[in-house]
Structures are given as structure tokens and as C-alpha cells.
């Protein structure tokens, strides 16, 4: 009898140990999953929980950048709460150690200034001219002798390539290609091609076409595109802007378009096609290239288009700068977006952040959001094409922009973190001087 109770007690005790060990292992695992880069705003603080037998310490004395302390009362338990205060902008390296001796993981703590940006929400017309011409199709040429030729394919040219030069002459647009080929006629020429950001040269001999008596390479090309999107933000001091939250790609090849030059213009909403399950809606707008130019595009990246706005736009815009929110600060729950759907007026619409992804690298799909605003749902059905770039604001901070809609549920979509868009601006800052003199 006593032996049975003893065995039962041992089973319960063993089970308790296993449960405790299980939860302890989960806690320790969460420490290893903690981001290797921790961002702290200057003047603010961040807390990090560390379980025994681990400890956290700075690799060097960095009291001028951060000050770190831990909760003395927590020594009675297995957890220590470290508090890191951001004193001044800079970077400090912290080390997680086992038993205070064995290095396990390193944390890079960056103390940064919280940037202020002016949110957009403006409907903008986008006009983009490519660098050179983009090959959207490779086809046969019917020669004067009635035979079919494919000089482009024979020269190794593929759909998605960009033709930059013909016989050392920089290609301007599609009409320029036709002009150059008819000057060269059937002489073998040297062509500079760009494919996947790598340039190479090839030789090709144009063929005179029976259909129009013009010399052809056997390619269809495109040199420009246009559409409607939404301005996300701009910086009052640098004049840099970001929009769309995703790049502009060619409709036929799916390739990201190389920018030679482009501009954003004020767009007037003409009508809205409501989004429905299985059919994404669309905002249709009107804009004129000679009127209401808001800025020039200098970069087309997978995470948006970027450039410089005009002084006139900054002076006329009534929106005020607000602080940005870092990805670690974003919470699931209520937020709002700014966009234009009627009377060319920027409006605020309520949304809900369903999930905020833990991302270490840029991605267009950082947040999953749902439109909850009744007016917007009634007007558009949710998120529609043309809303890409609409700024997302939570707790007074600019945290990101709308990028995609769920085709099977237009009330839901994706958003990108504002940090990923700002990374593109920072990598584009060297273009400021080149374009600043020509912006107005």
C-alpha cells in the first residue's frame, strides 16, 4: 500500500519536473529567438528578460551611449530583467553569457533618433521612363525574301532584357531604336544588354522586314509606364519621398523597371471599381504630365518608388510631420490609414492590425491588416488597386503602408513596415545632390 503511494508520488513529482523543464526550455529558446539587433530611441528605454544561468553585459564600457541595469529584486527568482536606457545615438554590443563565462549570443543595440515624417495619403499619378528599352517579347521577322529570321534570339537576347546601347549610342526610347536600326540597316552592330543587373555585349544583324520595309531585330520593347498610386511620406528637410510600398514591374515580364527618369503628379479620382471576392477593385484617376508635378522619381525598388518632392508641394501641403514607429513597437489591434477616395481629399479610415511579422530583412508583407471602417467598406469594398502606399498610423506614429489586397477577401491585405521603406531612402541618399538642382 505504502509502496503504491510512493510510486504514485514519484510519478507526480517526475511529471512536475518535466512540465517545469518544458516551460523553462521554452523560455530559454525565446531568448535565442530574440532579435540580434535591438533598436532603442534616444531618451527611451527597453527591458530584456534573461533566465538563470544566463547573464547579459556590454562588451565594452559604453556609458556615453547606453546605461544598463537589472532588477535587483529579481535575483530571488530565475529571471533578471535588464533595463537599457538610450543616452545618445550610437551602437553598443551586448553579450549573452552562460554562467557569466561562456559567450552564447551577441546583441547589437542601436540607439537612434526617432525620425519625423509627413504622412501622405495623396492620390498620385506615376509616370516612369525606363533606362533604355525593355524587351517584352522576342519574335520572328519576315524578311524581304519571304523567309523568317530571329536575329534577337540568335544573338542571345531574352524577354526581360534591357537594351541600353546600340553601337555605342545610348538608347532613349522605342522610337529611337527604330531610328538607329534604319540608319545602320543590315550592318552587324554591337548591343549592350542588361540582365539581372549584369551588363554584357552581343552582336546582331538587323533584318529588313517585308511588312513595313523597316529594319528589325525581332523584339517588342517598352520604354515607359503610367498608373495611379498613393504617396506614403516625405521628409521636410531632405525633400525625399516614398510611395506605393512595392515596386513598379512590367506587366508582361514581371521584371522591376529600371528608372531613367520619372515623376509623380497630382491625380484626380475619376471613379472607383469596388473590390469583390475573387475580383480586386481599382481606383481610376486622371492626371496630366504638364500640370501639378509633385516630384521626380529617382528610384524604383521592390519596396516602393522614391525621389524628391517640389518646394511648392511642401508649402501647399497641410499635413504635419509625425514620429515614425519601429517594427518592435507595433501592436496587433486598432490603427488607421490615410487615403484618397473622394473629392481629392485625404481621409482617415479605421483598420485593424491582425498580425505583425517578426522580420529581420525587408519584406512587402510585414503586417496583415483588415479594413473595419464602414464608409470605406461601403465605398470600395476594402482595399483596392491604387491604395498601395496609403500610410498606416498607430498611436500617433507612422508605422508603414498598404501594399497588397487579398484577392479572395478585399477587406484584408498586407502592409510594409516604414523602416523597410526608409532603408530604401537611406540607400538612395547619394542621389539627392544629382536631382536637387533640377527638382523645381
Describe the structure.
The protein has 440 residues and is α+β, with helices and mostly antiparallel strands. It folds into 3 domains: 33-113, Immunoglobulin-like (Sandwich), CATH 2.60.40; 117-125 and 232-436, Thrombin, subunit H; 140-217, PDZ domain (Pdz3 Domain, Roll), CATH 2.30.42.10. The protein contains 7 helices and 31 strands. The strands form 7 sheets. It has a 6-stranded antiparallel beta barrel. A 6-stranded antiparallel beta barrel has the order 26-27-28-31-30-29. Strands 1-7-6-3 form a 4-stranded mixed β-sheet, with no helix packed on it. Strand 26 (333-342) and strand 27 (345-356) form a beta hairpin. The chain is globular and about 95 Å long. The protein starts with a helix and ends with a helix. Mean pLDDT is 84; it is low at 429-440.
Defining key terms:
globular, 440 residues, 6-stranded antiparallel barrel, 47% strand, 6-stranded antiparallel beta barrel, Thrombin, subunit H, disordered C terminus, Immunoglobulin-like
Distance between the termini: 95 Å
Strand order of the largest sheet: 9-18-19-24-23-20
How large is the count of helical segments?
Answer: 7
CATH architecture of the largest domain: Beta Barrel
Estimate the mean pLDDT confidence. 84
CATH fold topology of the largest domain: Thrombin, subunit H
The CATH first-level class of the largest domain comes to Mainly Beta
Low-confidence stretches: 429-440
User: Which term fits the overall shape?
Assistant: globular
Coarse structural class: alpha+beta
Measured as a percent range, the helix fraction is: 10-25%
Task: Please identify which CATH superfamily of the largest domain we are dealing with.
Answer: Trypsin-like serine proteases
Estimated share of beta-strand residues: over 45%
What is the makeup of the main sheet?
Answer: 6 strands, antiparallel, barrel
Roughly how many Å is the radius of gyration? Answer: 29 Å
Number of domains: 3
Tell me the total number of β-strands.
31
Amino acid at each position: 500500500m505504502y509502496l503504491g503511494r510512493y510510486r504514485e508520488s514519484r510519478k507526480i513529482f517526475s511529471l512536475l519536473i518535466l512540465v517545469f523543464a518544458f516551460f523553462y526550455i521554452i523560455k530559454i529558446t525565446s531568448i535565442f529567438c530574440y532579435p540580434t539587433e535591438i533598436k532603442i530611441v534616444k531618451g527611451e528605454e527597453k527591458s530584456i528578460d534573461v533566465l538563470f544561468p544566463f547573464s547579459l553585459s556590454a562588451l565594452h564600457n559604453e556609458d556615453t551611449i547606453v546605461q544598463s541595469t537589472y532588477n535587483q529584486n529579481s535575483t530571488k527568482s530565475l529571471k533578471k530583467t535588464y533595463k537599457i536606457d538610450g543616452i545618445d545615438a550610437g551602437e553598443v554590443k551586448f553579450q549573452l553569457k552562460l554562467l557569466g563565462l561562456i559567450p552564447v549570443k551577441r546583441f547589437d543595440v542601436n540607439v537612434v533618433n526617432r525620425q519625423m515624417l509627413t504622412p501622405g495619403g495623396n492620390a498620385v499619378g506615376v509616370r516612369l521612363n525606363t533606362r533604355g528599352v525593355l524587351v517584352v517579347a522576342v519574335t520572328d521577322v519576315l524578311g524581304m525574301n519571304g523567309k523568317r529570321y530571329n536575329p534577337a534570339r540568335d544573338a542571345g537576347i531574352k524577354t526581360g532584357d534591357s537594351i541600353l546601347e546600340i553601337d555605342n549610342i545610348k538608347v532613349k526610347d522605342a522610337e529611337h531604336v527604330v531610328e538607329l536600326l534604319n540608319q545602320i540597316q543590315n550592318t552587324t552592330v554591337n548591343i549592350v544588354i542588361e540582365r539581372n543587373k549584369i551588363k554584357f555585349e552581343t552582336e546582331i544583324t538587323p533584318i529588313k522586314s517585308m511588312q513595313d520595309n523597316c529594319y528589325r531585330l525581332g523584339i517588342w520593347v517598352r520604354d515607359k509606364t503610367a498608373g495611379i498610386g498613393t504617396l506614403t511620406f516625405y521628409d521636410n528637410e531632405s525633400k525625399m519621398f516614398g510611395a506605393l510600398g512595392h515596386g513598379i514591374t512590367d506587366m508582361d515580364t514581371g521584371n522591376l523597371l529600371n528608372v531613367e527618369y520619372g515623376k509623380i503628379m497630382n491625380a484626380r479620382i475619376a471613379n472607383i471599381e469596388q473590390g469583390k471576392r475573387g475580383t480586386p477593385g481599382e481606383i481610376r484617376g486622371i492626371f496630366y504630365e504638364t500640370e501639378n508635378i509633385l516630384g521626380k522619381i529617382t528610384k524604383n525598388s521592390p519596396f516602393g518608388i522614391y525621389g524628391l518632392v517640389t518646394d511648392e508641394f511642401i508649402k501647399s501641403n497641410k499635413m504635419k510631420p509625425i514620429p515614425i514607429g519601429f517594427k518592435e513597437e507595433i501592436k496587433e489591434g486598432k490603427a488607421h490609414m490615410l487615403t484618397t477616395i473622394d473629392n481629392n481629399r485625404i481621409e482617415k479610415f479605421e483598420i485593424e492590425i491582425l498580425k505583425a511579422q517578426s522580420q529581420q530583412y525587408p519584406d512587402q508583407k510585414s503586417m496583415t491588416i483588415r479594413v473595419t471602417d464602414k464608409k470605406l467598406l461601403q465605398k470600395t469594398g476594402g482595399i483596392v488597386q491604387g491604395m498601395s502606399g496609403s500610410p498606416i498610423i498607430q498611436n500617433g506614429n507612422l508605422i508603414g503602408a498598404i501594399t497588397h489586397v487579398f484577392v479572395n477577401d478585399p477587406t484584408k491585405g498586407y502592409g510594409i513596415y516604414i523602416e523597410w521603406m526608409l532603408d530604401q531612402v537611406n540607400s538612395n541618399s547619394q542621389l539627392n545632390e544629382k536631382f536637387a538642382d533640377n527638382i523645381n
